[in-house]
Amino acid sequence: MTSLSELKAQILSLTREYSRQAHGSFRPADDPLRRPWAEGTPIPYAGRVFTDDEVEAAVSTTLDFWLTLGVEGTAMEKELAAFLGVRHSLLVNSGSSANLIAISALTSPKLTKERRIRPGDEVITVAAGFPTTVAPIVQVGAVPVFIDADPITGNARCEQLEAAYQQGKTKAVMMAHALGNPFDLATTLAFCRKYDLWLVEDNCDALGCSYSMPRELAESLGFTENSPGLDDGPDRVIRWTGTWGDISTQSFYPPHHLTMGEGGAVNIVRDQKLRVVAESFRDWGRDCWCPSGIDNTCNKRFGWQLGELPEGYDHKYTYSHLGYNLKPLDIQAAIGRVQLKRLPEFIEARKRNWEILRRGLAPHDAFLEFSLPTHATGWDAQSGFRWDDSGCRTDCSWFGFKIATRPGAPVTRTELACELDRNQIGNRMLFGGNLLRQPAFVQLREDNPEALRVIGTMEGADEIMNSTLFLGTYPGMTEGMLHAQVQVISSFLQQ
Questions:
Q1: What values do phi and psi take at 171, rounded to 5?
Q2: Ranges in the chain, pLDDT < 50
Q3: 3-state class of 293 per DSSP?
Q4: Computed over its alpha carbons, how large is the radius of gyration of the chain?
Q5: Beta partners for residue 198, in sequence order
Q6: How many CB atoms are closer than 10 A to CB 279?
Q7: What CATH architecture applies to the domain 71-317?
Q8: How do the domains of the chain map onto residue ranges?
Q9: 3-state class (DSSP) for residue 250
Q10: What pTM was computed for the model?
Q11: What are the C-alpha distances in Å from 115 to residues 110, 190, 271, 274?
């Protein structure tokens, strides 16, 4: 009789063989078993990149049939936190949920009265980007204060932070690193330290990006150590994005730097108290911190008296927050653990793919405006990026290749997007463009003019909305796919 372990091994061996035959086109671009891309077939802007290992991990965990978050989730949380060098990572079911949990955690009555975000308090954010960076601010009853975006970097104009501040009202800054390009962390951190504000980094598009600054500046902001695996010399501090603020978020949706299908994470950078409250908001709002299926971690399950409950009321059914259930499945975490091992090669592939597109499209500088990393002042094919005199540097694991049509170009952004579509080349706007122009935010302001506040005229965000799109840089993009995109764009501009 075949034992269960032998039967499982047979199933997993067949699983790997099935994956090799069925999913050859999803392997990394440089994988020798990758199914070749055929000219004239679609070029997606992003997608899943995986091998037999991820499929085997998913099936193996499914056969065990625990399903809800368990040992795989615990392991992935530890491994992600170790990679980043943060105190704790908390898995959730999406990057949008991660943003909701991150800002919700800062409303907890377990925090000090001075720093807790209460209804009507303000959170500074940026006008151009993805709506679920901003929506959670509104959803917790706070007021988003919008500053403009720089059309070149896609990031916030951080020189507007001071204009956005209101004493007694401003409690936090929450912004995304746009398309894998870190925002100006040195300026933002100095601002947050000056006024004792929380910094929430939406790192959903930027896992594997790093930011460095002179050691003297870093130490003045409270940073002395590099992130694990990073070294920029003794006179500098270099850290992954998502590790400079108080709390950060990740998305593991298929286009992102690694995938669990659906999924995300909240990273607690330093403060253990934030872990407790973030976990509570993720897990129904309960006060108990026992994992699913485990009771009495605190050894006083029936020894608490909280709220107006009777003494000894079951701690597993005591709720300190108005929470949610936003956990992913253990199957997703099993996939994510394999993906996390691929992250270093994925990061390098995204950088390489951006460089190939930039070099290929360089002859069209007169018509196209290209993105620059924050703190860069220019780029050329011989020496790469030139940098400003701040001493700060960014190293981008690009989520996408951002371009804009210049005034006087022979085509508009929309015409270029249509031509790319016609040639089956995936492309996207910079998400919601100027979010203030989106129907949801127009309606919000119409219903309650005090529900948000705007600094300045938003010319940069409007320019992004009107002129910008991006192409893919994901690690499934082969050189043939990249060169095909360059050829289509070049031919269209030369008509």
A1: -120, -20
A2: none
A3: coil
A4: 23
A5: 172
A6: 20
A7: 3-Layer(aba) Sandwich (3.40)
A8: 71-317
A9: strand
A10: 0.97
A11: 11, 17, 14, 12
Rounded-to-integer distance, Cα 171 and Cα 162, Å: 13
Tokens 């929450």 locate to 174
Structure tokens at 405: 């049509």
Task: Give the strand pairing for 88-92 and 264-268.
Answer: antiparallel
Active site (catalytic) residues = 256
**Residues 191, 173: Cα–Cα separation, whole Å:** 9
Q: Which of 399, 359, 401, 402 is nearest to 382 (CA)?
A: 359
Residue 282 CB contacts under 8 Å (≥ 6 apart), including other chains: 90, 92, 97, 101, 266, 323, 324, 325, 326, 327
**Count H helices, E strands: the chain?**
14, 16
Please give the structure tokens belonging to residue 309.
């409950």
- Cα gap 305→382, rounded to integer Å: 68
CA atoms lying within 13 Å on the CB side of residue 419: 17
CB-based contacts of 290-299 (< 8 A; 24+ apart in sequence): 290/316, 291/69, 291/70, 291/74, 292/68, 292/69, 292/70, 293/70
Residue with tokens 């706070």: 142
**What is the reported pLDDT for 333?**
98
Alpha helices in 381-478 (DSSP H): 413-422, 439-447, 459-467
